[in-house]
Input
Amino acid sequence: MDKAEAAGGDRNCRRIAIMEAAAQLFGQVGFEGTSMKAVASAAGEKKTLVQYHFRYKQQLWEETVAYVWQQRDEALPRFVSIAPDDLSAMDAMEELCRYILRFTFANPTWVKIMFQEASTPGPRLDWMVERFFIRDFAGGKGVVELAQARGVLPDVDPMHLLYTLSGALIYLVNVAPIIERVTGQGADDEAFIEQYVATLMQILSGGKRQ
Amino acid sequence: MDKAEAAGGDRNCRRIAIMEAAAQLFGQVGFEGTSMKAVASAAGEKKTLVQYHFRYKQQLWEETVAYVWQQRDEALPRFVSIAPDDLSAMDAMEELCRYILRFTFANPTWVKIMFQEASTPGPRLDWMVERFFIRDFAGGKGVVELAQARGVLPDVDPMHLLYTLSGALIYLVNVAPIIERVTGQGADDEAFIEQYVATLMQILSGGKRQ
DNA sequence: CTGTTTACTATACGATCGAATAGTGTTTAA
DNA sequence: TTAAACACTATTCGATCGTATAGTAAACAG
Output
């Protein structure tokens, strides 16, 4: 029992595999575009097993999204709180941007689901707002204000700065497939990320300003 | 005939209404999530009429996307080329950002379709790349380089700066429904846009830099 | 006036959609 | 040991999916 749990659940591993397949599909083609059969096939299971664990599509979606956010929260904030301690302020900011970019490239699912639901505002988006986004916004604001207090971010409205930074970072992940096809260089390349972050820091610290 | 054409086509007006309904749906729920019946209903037509004008869903999508981009190109670049002429460099840049934001809020369809297809890279994205994105990227780069030459944008890699700016502007439109639900203030409000652009310009010109 | 094209519609096809039901066996608890 | 609980599956349902075909009525070319 504990052995099976340590090996990845075993009792729940098929259930979790289904949620991970569902997360990818919900992020790629949205709620309406995702079928139970497609989720099952992507997880290597039968459709009826999906419907056994998640009776309704709506339920599959809710539990999947909750699982995705939980996985994200387990991996992300570690760096957000630890990084600024043992580095100079500016280096910490750069390191944070680099980490957020790499993390989002490695775990793009939550961002894609967020965009999917934001493109069709409805009950599902409302559910996400009260469950996740209110907290996410507050957390993001806190990080920005901390960086501002250390003089590493411009002293402007923290929420607007948060939108700007989120946009500059997250947008890149979403249009990465386009960038790759147009320019030939993968936006998730180590070299690309390095240069992008460098550019961003240059902009934030005043650049060659007018 | 010319009278009907001037009044909006008349011969093509139902066809165009279908494409406009389709554009909205393709942007909201993507290709897989959009059904021919839903497009017909949204346009106030029968499903068979949609299939008369566009035999396959794929064809409806292609012609719709081409129509959306054409409409965008007819409205957008006018300002992009005219604005910088009769204003000071910095004011022109601010005006350009303001205009792009307002325009994207008023015409979010092309952005939403772009994100939908980027989230499921495939033949349709390839089609958009060679038809639109290669040209769009080149145009965007040109605008950035022009602004850099006038000393109104930091002198960093133009493509990376383009990504940053596009992200800061376009991301906002995509998460606007979330911002509105979390903060209570509509991101397409005149006041919000004004403050956001002001913040962005402050960042770009060095802010209260470290 | 006749024949063809054009815009549009009614009906139907097989496939797939989300969902319900009635089952398998295998664990687990009493 | 027995029975309840659990994980999983086969089959079926009506609705809707994209698509095909046959048809109607008006506009137009000869």
